[in-house]
Amino acid sequence: MEIEKKRRHTSGRTLLWSVAAIAVIAAAGVVGGKVMLEKTVRTSLEQSGAQAASVEVDFTGHVHLSDVTVPLENDQTLHIASIEARPEFLFLSGMIDARDLAFEAGPMHVSVPSVLIEDAGINRAFLAAASGEADLTPAERVARLSAGRIEIASVAVSQSQQGIDQTTTYSDVALENIVDGHVGRYFASGMTSDTEVAPDPRADGDAEPVSVKLSVGAIEGEDIDAPFLTRIYTEAKPADGENAAQQVYGPVTAKDFVMETADGRVTYAEMSSDGFSMRLADEPFLTTLERLGALSDTEALLPGDEERLGLEAFLLLDAIAKGDLQISGIGLTTDAEPDMTFAIDRLAVTFDDLVLGFSMDGLDVRAGDDSLTVRSASWTDFSLAPTLAGIREYLKAGPGAPDMAWKAAFLPGFGTLSLSDYAVNMNPGAENGFDVEKPLNVAVKDFSLALQDPVNGIPSDIRMVMNELKLDLAGHDDNEAFALLKQLGYQEVNISENIALHWDKANKALIVEDIGFSGDNMGSVSLSGVVGGFGEAFFSGDKALMQAAVFGLTGRAVALKVENDGLFARALKLYADRNGMSVEQAALTLSMLPSIAAQTVGEGDPGVQALIDAVSAFIADPNKLEIAITAKSDQGIGAPAFMAATMDPASLLQQVDITAKAD
Predict the structure, then answer these.
(1) Cβ partners under 8 Å of residue 472, min gap 6
(2) What is the pLDDT of residue 566?
């Protein structure tokens, strides 16, 4: 990716300087007169440092040059075999026709057979900007470029660097309605790329080179703000804080994406975007890239430099204000699994001020009779804002490996992850299947996980919901829980779970709203409560501080709700069968257990008696049971009281109120 960024940047500058150099030569025609034109062209060549084997100007104002060499920055050069140009003159519009352009920059070579610029705005204002006579910023110079249409038959870029050989070709490129540097519309008939990565000489064994072939069909787009893009690369955000985002790319589509490797093939039917908006970064992109490039070229980085290098590069994301990408018709095939098919109907990604959204529709993976499917999935409100804020604070603090507190500060805002209609069906011995050792047949109707309101990177509000998890228990006899369910008479289960808790900062409490479980032909269990003494130490990221804070926790309240829908009857029968008694005898035996237990903790206590009566009634006729235990003190019951209760259970009863009922 870094090589691609550098290539695009260098190619962009090459095109700009190429057009500028050609325009300087062509604009000389406005002076008038054949002799005067030739003299002006030669003078312009000398001032720009360009050289030409021949210069001819006809009486119609056309400028003809051959074998032109244009010097560029960093000892790079552009060679043009021939140029025919005409400046704006009377009723004639400007025109440039250049042939056989070649650009060399170290390991990179760019060749363009022809460039035709129609309705080119080649006038004195543009000439001053392009030649450097005017005191303008790079962005202001780009804003002087106007043309009706630019046609480029093809652009071939080849480069070899650090064991990577790459050739990329764009075909039938055209840009239209270029006004003050803004491109109204652009398109290309296609793009192909061949990349070969040499094996790492440090790797063990006989490593093979990696070859990647890429092709893209028709590409169409609108609205490129080239002047503002130039500002992003050459200017830092203003010190006064005014840094409004601007759209730099409008809608764009690309069709028929194909990527092939030795192991398989990935295809997209279409990629599209509604556009991207950006803002100026803390420093110009060019400055950051050059500084990162200098550091990465150093063979021996100082301890921590490599980490800081990656963190600084990560900060570039802050320049992206808003954008999106949609991909449809995704397919994957692999030679390792020739019978496997992988398809996704649609993927979408959104980016809005460091908040990302992701969605997927129609995932379908199959191998023989085995399959994995997901109707839809989404991830919303995933925020990188706290991550970038943490990185800035860490870099400001100076070198040094981050401790746990810093690492916690780097955590992004998780947001909400959701799945719908997830299903896996895999079985051992399936023909052309996934070669699993145990059967796995599971389906989930809905699942969501939300981790919100982070404090120092740690979420303070947690929500998890899973509806209708269906699991076939066949083939899982080695799992104790599954084996017990089968003994209870279940061949498959359909269960749902729910977790909801949040931190009450003002009252230093952890509120457990609900931890629930339910199942078809089973019933449901719901637990809620309040844990006191839950302060900011638990969000510090400091392990020692968090461990010490555990001893300050208190129990304030707990509530239990149980509703039977068949599980208790199955459990009672299993208990009776194991102990050689009838179901009635088993129920009678179990109903006596609460009274026996109460004798050791406080027989005669009103709360205990209510609990005994409710549990006994539930055992006799299992339907609904509700139990609530609340600390008498607003501060709750601390660790010392719980430790004392292990020796004297009755001591705990004096500190709580107990209510219980059975329906």
Answers:
(1) 439, 441, 442, 491, 492
(2) 92
Distance CA 384, CA 438 (A): 39
pLDDT tens profile 15-25:
444 444 444 44
Q: In which band, very low, low, confident or very high, does the pLDDT at 300 lie, cut at 50, 70 and 90?
A: low
Q: Measured at the alpha carbon of residue 542, what is the angle toward residues 539 and 543, in degrees to the nearest 5?
A: 105
CB 152 within 8 A of CB 114: yes
Only one residue has tokens 């990177």, namely 457
Instruction: Give the relative orientation of helices 567-578 and 583-601 as an angle to the nearest 10 degrees.
Output: 90
Phi and psi based region of residue 425 (left: phi greater than 0; alpha: psi -120 to 50; beta: remaining): beta
**DSSP H or E run through 254:** strand 252-261
Coil, strand or helix at 196: strand
Identify the bridge partners of residue 444 per DSSP, sorted by sequence position.
422, 469
Q: Which residue do the tokens 């460039």 mark?
A: 115
**Number of helices (H), then strands (E), in the chain:** 16, 29
Q: Which amino acid is at 225?
A: D
pLDDT at 7: 45
The answer for residues whose C-beta is within 8 angstroms of residue 195's C-beta and 6 or more apart is 164, 165, 166, 167, 211, 212, 213, 214
Q: Single out the residue of 314, 233, 311 nearest to residue 278, CA to CA.
A: 233
Distance from C-alpha of 606 to C-alpha of 660, rounded to nearest angstrom: 11
DSSP state of 356: E
Among candidates 252, 317, 248, which has minimal Cα distance to 276?
Answer: 248
pLDDT score at 42: 62
| pLDDT tens column, 322-331 | 999 999 999 9
CA 359 to chain centre: 11
For residue 5, the model assigns a pLDDT of 43
How confident is the model over 642-658, as a mean pLDDT?
Answer: 82
What is the rounded distance in angstroms from the CA atom of residue 603 to the CA atom of residue 595? 8
Neighbours of 348 (CB within 10 A): 16
pLDDT at residue number 32: 43
DSSP string, 59-103: TTS-EEEEEEEEE-GGG-EEEEEEEEEE--BTTBPEEEEEEEEEE
Under DSSP, is residue 489 helix (H, G, I), strand (E, B) or coil?
A: coil
Cα 51 from Cα 104, distance rounded (Å)? 16
Quick one: which of 82, 67, 75, 71 has its CA closest to 47?
71
Higher pLDDT, 491 or 241: 491
pLDDT, one tens digit per residue, over 78-112 is 899 998 887 766 556 778 899 999 988 767 788 99
DSSP-derived secondary structure letter, 240: T
| 12 band by pLDDT with thresholds 50, 70 and 90 | very low
pTM here is: 0.78
Which token pair is 292? 């990162």
Cα(197)–Cα(585) distance, integer angstroms: 76
